[in-house]
Design goal:
This protein is α/β, with parallel strands linked by helices. It has helices spanning about 5-20, 25-35, 60-70, 140-150; strands at about 45-50, 75-80, 85-90, 100, 105, 120, 125, 130-135, 155-160, 180, 185-190.
Length: about 190
């Protein structure tokens, strides 16, 4: 079985597990992550890129509220074109969002662009080595690789525990996460 096929099968199984969770379990999981907070110190003014959840992704809103209360500034990703790195625009929870190119809610084009210090990463599946499977377009891998050429950026995956798989076939261009936060556990991959 090829790596691409293996990733497709793992993605499908993890997304099915995620879809099978009921609304109460989803809300409880997001709340648990928000209560726990980030596993690193949040210094006032640090810029954290969240995401607008799509499909059945875990909602980062409880965690976002917590980091804002700790003095963090927020940004959201913007998809400019397939094959291009994401850009990030300043955002606050009261700002009106608009559908972007892929229908995902984004800040207004008038919002200032910024480079985040911490990126919250949605995912389809993850393993205990810090590898993730997204939706196949490579937006986050490309973006994190580019950003890390010039500065340290912490990548933190958010997921339901049900999205864990035994092993993700990592390819050369795949960028490992520093942490994954689930409703059950914090995984720290920085020394892996």
């Amino acid at each position: 079985m090829s790596d691409a096929r293996s990733k497709a099968d793992l993605r499908a199984a993890a997304l099915a597990a995620r879809e099978a969770l009921n609304a109460d379990d989803r809300a409880a999981a997001a709340h648990a992550i928000g209560l726990r907070g980030l596993p690193i110190e949040i210094k006032p003014g640090v810029v954290i890129a969240a995401y607008s959840p799509i499909r059945s992704e875990i909602d980062p809103a409880p965690l976002v509220r917590r980091v804002v209360s700790q003095g963090a500034r927020l940004a959201l990703p913007v998809v400019t074109a397939r094959g291009q790195s994401l850009r990030f625009r300043i955002w606050s929870p009261n700002d009106r969002l608009m559908p972007g190119q892929l229908g995902i809610l984004e800040p207004s084009p008038a919002a200032a662009e910024i480079v985040p210090d911490i990126v919250l990463v949605p995912l389809a599946a993850f393993d205990r080595a810090g590898h993730r499977i997204g939706y196949g377009a490579g937006h986050y891998d490309r973006t994190l690789a580019q950003m890390r050429k010039s500065r340290a950026v912490v990548a933190i995956g958010l997921a339901f525990a049900a999205q864990e798989v035994e092993a993700v076939p990592a390819l050369r261009h795949d960028v490992a996460l520093d942490y994954v936060l689930t409703d059950k556990q914090v995984f720290d991959f920085r020394s892996s």
